[in-house]
Task: structure prediction
Amino acid sequence: MPLPETEIPGRLQAELMSRGLRMTRQRRTILSVVETAKQHLDASQLLRRARRLDPQIDRVTVYRTLGLLKRHGLIDELDLMHMQGEKHFYERRPQRDHIHMACLRCGKITEFESDLFDRLKGQIQRDCRFHIVVTRLEIGGYCAQCRSTDQAQD
Amino acid sequence: MPLPETEIPGRLQAELMSRGLRMTRQRRTILSVVETAKQHLDASQLLRRARRLDPQIDRVTVYRTLGLLKRHGLIDELDLMHMQGEKHFYERRPQRDHIHMACLRCGKITEFESDLFDRLKGQIQRDCRFHIVVTRLEIGGYCAQCRSTDQAQD
DNA sequence: TCCTTATTGCAACTGACTTTCAAATTATAG
DNA sequence: CTATAATTTGAAAGTCAGTTGCAATAAGGA
Result:
């Protein structure tokens, strides 16, 4: 009879376990934060949320877990045009790549999928004989809302 | 009768002067390094080269000049997939945007222009009503050469 | 040339991330 | 249910890239 689990194992956890990695209490906590995040979080935000679930977690463990997920291609690292310092943001790798648009005025991040983007990647793989592992398309500019409420923009 | 100039004023210098910025010896030196660079240079490489022309230049001045050029849209800042730490690389803004491909094995950076990329940007401006100021498309993967000489790749 | 303002250089600082290493924990073998 | 071997963790110190404060200096117009 199965014991009640403190955490419902998510896809990230299942992925890591299937690759033979040890599942510690800290890892489970950090993975659950990454899984349930509704926006792009940076390392310190992830740490704060993980600590709400397990106050003992250290930030090195967060960095190490993020590195692990990155190496296994399970999360993507974003710069979001470095609008708030040099920190990085993370999101679970989606099935289909998308573009991140960052509004230089209000800071809003918009995601956009496009067939043209998929075709562009195909062209690169073919024409350059380049095997794509990870892509990052970030665009800085002014969103529709800021364009209509502000005159002074580039 | 014009005095002999130590530096032939380049396009970056002309641009900054036309915008009413003061042209100092240090700026002229840094601009000339940026203008004549044949590869993507980071701040410390730029400093080293600038110091060969003027040993007194401080690294803060390099950072401030890069910030100035960035704000004026005269150079683009690249991450090149953060393959060598978190530093940034710089290049003069080209007339036509291009893609940077970074080989995760040999580190080679390849540039690629594409009509599909131009069309993708047009689509974003139209469909998202987003006014594009700067784009950064970086791709990590394996170049043609590394694909044929190495079996162990992602 | 003088004068105002922008720019520089130094030193100290910051923030994000990494390394080191002993102690704790995990998965596995018995 | 141990014992064991290997992985993972946390705490502290360190690194690296870039920034800030401020007094001294230099640019460019009057």
Remarks:
- The longest strand of chain A covers residues 131-142.
- Helices of chain A lie at 11-18, 25-36, 43-53, 59-71, 115-127, 144-149.
- Chain A touches chain B through 41 residues (CB under 8 Å).
- The longest helix of chain A spans residues 59-71.
